[in-house]
Amino acid sequence: QVQLVESGGGLVQAGGSLRLSCAASGRTSSLAMGWFRQAPGKEREFVAASSWSGGSTGYADSVKGRFTVSKDNAKNTVYLQMNSLKPEDTAVYYCAAKRPGTYWRDSYYSTGYNYWGQGTQVTVSS
To answer: If pLDDT is split at 50, 70 and 90, which confidence band does 81 have?
Structure first.
């Protein structure tokens, strides 16, 4: 089993930055990690993903150039650095992990993940 705990959410003005963290515990070996978000009344959507090594990353078009995903495997932690935040980035952000041996293309879909954190609220004011 894997447990995921997100932190770092909060209230920020448009144009500001936040860094989310997701600490993994349990069977963390070779996990690929992803970030998703869900705004009120909307479907959960993909934001970013990183392979276990960090050598492969992927981003939603809406966040490319503004968000950066990174991993520190020594700390079993994945980060999402969010810059130039916009009001439309307001959502609950979820960290997710997928077991090894799965296809990288599945990283873009919530169904590709096996474990989820509880979420952290990000609110961007205009």
So the answer is: very high
